[in-house]
């Protein structure tokens, strides 16, 4: 990535490149080897187009209409009609970062030289990304099989100069106007191109990559929240010792426990009850078992990353061009099951991490379990409610996340006159995972906020350097320490922004180095 551009070649794009294009606005250009591969595959399609033998997607209809041979003079209309009819999405607009990620991933497949598009079509898709032109894609329309058809069709429509887009400033306008303003000309799609532009798992895959990126940060932040809770609830750090974790050698568990151990190092609070006078035998599960839950979620994320890596290396289209054999072959690689399963799996893991975070928070508020802290951490209990309702907010989000953890990929509704009789619902799995990731960040933020208040209430005992840095971050961001009740929602939203931006993670790491 130089000059804020990502070069797309015949090989897979990386997670970092997806994030750079989707979130950071990086432009895109095609490498010379990608353009050569595109030209080679196009030559095969043109040979087949000239042949009297029907070839699916080149000289036939689509789906259940594949038995009709299409005359050469109707093939441009065939591709145009395909895109127009499939751009049938409905509902709210999909986020810009999702649309940009799916455009990049479709371009990456085009660049493999297995789809048969012309180079000018691929280059126009790259140009839309470079100019910040984002087609309007709607929430509903993909069944996650035969690709994310409707979302991708809305993007293909923009290449034709039709439909609506948003320009780099976010202004809604006709695609034709946006292309003209950028000095770009729409393409007239030729044989196979409409199909090649819409037949991929790019939407669900883009959302998977973004979710993995977010979850890797959030799980380390959840370790920070757990450490603050263990510390402020006078828990022990001894259960996180490496020799105990080695007895159950899950890599995610080892990483989470190592983080907790490092975060609690040199804590005056922990040291204050480490001696022989401490009569606490065991901490509650939500404290003691944090590495086991956070670690299982970590291992799930890394499994999902393995699947995503394979999918990034795939050429998903149907039919697919095999240039060496000069032929076109139908296949089922567009089925979203591999991606859909891990999207659902991640929603389960996120819900469980949120659930244990909420349980840790709740312990702070109960005077029977918080070891000497005031009820609800209130300044004047009875007059003040402290963080009572912050936990309600957490509980509401956790409950929603449990509903979002119900798998989408176990459902299937047949379509296309029973030709497409089993579908993945992977797009739906991805959409609900995005809401779940957002929910997890909110739950963790409330725990951080509550634990910071509790640590202040433990004064004059000093927290560990890492947790103290997080408390200082909150205070510097305008979240006051303990005191009479005040409007709590803005403080929660500030904490959420600090979690989502990575500021909480950065604050802790500034004291002890990178967490695992």
UniProtKB/TrEMBL annotation:
<dbReference type="InterPro" id="IPR001106">
    <property type="entry name" value="Aromatic_Lyase"/>
</dbReference>
<feature type="cross-link" description="5-imidazolinone (Ala-Gly)">
    <location>
        <begin position="145"/>
        <end position="147"/>
    </location>
</feature>
<dbReference type="Pfam" id="PF00221">
    <property type="entry name" value="Lyase_aromatic"/>
</dbReference>
<dbReference type="InterPro" id="IPR008948">
    <property type="entry name" value="L-Aspartase-like"/>
</dbReference>
<dbReference type="GO" id="GO:0019556">
    <property type="term" value="P:L-histidine catabolic process to glutamate and formamide"/>
</dbReference>
<protein>
    <recommendedName>
        <fullName>Histidine ammonia-lyase</fullName>
        <ecNumber>4.3.1.3</ecNumber>
    </recommendedName>
</protein>
<dbReference type="GO" id="GO:0019557">
    <property type="term" value="P:L-histidine catabolic process to glutamate and formate"/>
</dbReference>
<dbReference type="GO" id="GO:0004397">
    <property type="term" value="F:histidine ammonia-lyase activity"/>
</dbReference>
<dbReference type="InterPro" id="IPR005921">
    <property type="entry name" value="HutH"/>
</dbReference>
<keyword id="KW-0369">Histidine metabolism</keyword>
<feature type="modified residue" description="2,3-didehydroalanine (Ser)">
    <location>
        <position position="146"/>
    </location>
</feature>
<dbReference type="GO" id="GO:0005737">
    <property type="term" value="C:cytoplasm"/>
</dbReference>
<dbReference type="InterPro" id="IPR024083">
    <property type="entry name" value="Fumarase/histidase_N"/>
</dbReference>
<dbReference type="InterPro" id="IPR022313">
    <property type="entry name" value="Phe/His_NH3-lyase_AS"/>
</dbReference>
<comment type="similarity">
    <text>Belongs to the PAL/histidase family.</text>
</comment>
<keyword id="KW-0456">Lyase</keyword>
<comment type="pathway">
    <text>Amino-acid degradation; L-histidine degradation into L-glutamate; N-formimidoyl-L-glutamate from L-histidine: step 1/3.</text>
</comment>
<keyword id="KW-0963">Cytoplasm</keyword>
